Amino acid sequence: xxxxxxxxxxxxxxxxxxxxxxxxxxxxxxxxxxxxxxxxxxxxxxxxxxxxxxxxxxxxxxxxxxxxxxxxxxxxxxxxxxxxxxxxxxxxxxxxxxxxxxxxxxxxxxxxxxxxxxxxxxxxxxxxxxxxxxxxxxxxxxxxxxxxxxxxxxxxxxxxxxxxxxxxxxxxxxxxxxxxxxxxxxxxxxxxxxxxxxxxxxxxxxxxxxxxxxxxxxxxxxxxxxxxxxxxxxxxxxxxxxxxxxxxxxxxxxxxxxxxxxxxxxxxxxxxxxxxxxxxxxxxxxxxxxxxxxxxxxxxxxxxxxxxxxxxxxxxxxxxxxxxxxxxxxxxxxxxxxxxxxxxxxxxxxxxxxxxxxxxxxxxxxxxxxxxxxxxxxxxxxxxxxxxxxxxxxxxxxxxxxxxxxxxxxxxxxxxxxxxxxxxxxxxxxxxxxxxxxxxxxxxxxxxxxxxxxxxxxxxxxxxxxxxxxxxxxxxxxxxxxxxxxxxxxxxxxxxxxxxxxxxxxxxxxxxxxxxxxxxxxxxxxxxx
Length: 529
Ligand SMILES: *[C@@H]1O[C@H](CO)[C@@H](O)[C@H](O)[C@H]1NC(C)=O
Ligand SMILES: *[C@@H]1O[C@H](CO)[C@@H](O)[C@H](O)[C@H]1NC(C)=O
Known about the structure:
Elements: H1 2-17, E1 25-30, H2 37-50, E2 54-59, E3 72-76, H3 83-91, H4 104-123, H5 126-133, E4 143-147, H6 156-161, E5 165-169, H7 178-181, H8 203-236, H9 246-249, E6 253-258, E7 274-276, H10 290-297, E8 303-307, H11 319-330, E9 335-339, E10 352-355, H12 360-364, E11 369-374, H13 378-386, E12 391-393, H14 400-409, E13 413-415, H15 423-435, H16 437-451, H17 457-470, H18 486-489, H19 492-528
Helix pairs in contact: 2-17, 3-4, 4-8, 11-15, 15-16
This protein binds 2-acetamido-2-deoxy-beta-D-glucopyranose (2 copies).
GO molecular function, one term: glucuronosyltransferase activity
Catalytic activity: glucuronate acceptor + UDP-alpha-D-glucuronate = acceptor beta-D-glucuronoside + UDP + H(+)
Membrane topology: Single-pass membrane protein
């Protein structure tokens, strides 16, 4: 009898502790063909499938190699949209090494162009058209999962299927998100994602930060959104009674999953609906291929891992820079493992190994890796921090400067401007990172903080997705600030009111004083007579 009560109690507490979710049907839209972005998407979709959910995904790249089984349906976008072609065409960029010279305004314009082009390319696909024009919408899906990256037209699918939205941001927090989440991001200490600043800004840096943040907010509202609205209208007009505006749709997002986490992000105002899940793409290390394993095992003086990521290709590097890197590497006792996409590199120093593709995270996990030479992308930076490897940053564009500045400020990286790298500077920086213990100590401390979470990142992402499904959205987490007019939100009406009352009181006082003075004069005048 007692035993029965006990087991009932255990059963009861298990039920209370683990909220039950029936397997859900999730519509995912990952239509932007950014290779690095798919590190996060793939990890998330895998995790959802492993948790028993069914996912239908509009996919820029196939996840076929993941063997996700019958609960995964892929609507592949074909052919893959070559957005770098648009970039080269519109901005006179020859190769990506030139992006270091592009200013922020051109960069924002570039993102908008590639966003609009890739969105429309995906919307034209027959599979996507079938989804848009489907007759049956009731109960087909439980949730729309979308990327928070210049793909807003797809949010209309949530209106079509009457489902809540969760978005994922591969770039982590961005200042313009305050407009969708109804909060205020102080430009005084939150640097814009593309500015090479930190959270300690000088006066002039604050001026520039304010200007670029305001510029982006206004540009989105008055330039970008009308263009995205036109695309949304074109493709959803025939099927929706009223096509919602992008500005409205993005305030209906229930939860936003952000690829960032303390201490790699600026401490900043946020709302419960913004959930940091940075590091989702990092799994326990797998064994390395034999040749790499023995190359690194034998690196008794340590090894350097060099990769500029999936977009910037080392093979496009100007010839004199290539020679410079090879010369410096050849003069060091460390071994160098370099992601290099071309076999025609010529004679290599004996301590350098190149490969077209390298299992980056697994390599960074090798204890002999002493330095990671990186472009400072968010995924790579997180891997470097996770495995506590000091970094030599060569940032090119986007958030890479910011990530590297954060790392420099944290004392675990040295950042170099690609165009000003010299032999001496490169050798000196590498030796500092290897021999000066402060870099390793700092990155170990940052790594411990980065890994210290209430829930591991993939688990956390699935928790919040299931949370939104369970509660059919999360209006209780939505900021009421989103429903105010802009002048109400910034309290301009209250400030004007107080100023007006103050001014009125002042005027009245002045008037009263004048009247008093007047009557006093009259009084004295009458007296003298
Ligand atoms: C697919 O999802 C269903 C629930 O929707 C689940 O019962 C089944 O085990 C899943 N199949 C696989 C292969 O994971
Ligand atoms: C080690 O690096 C730190 C941080 O850059 C620097 O302050 C210190 O002087 C360096 N020590 C040596 C011996 O170079």
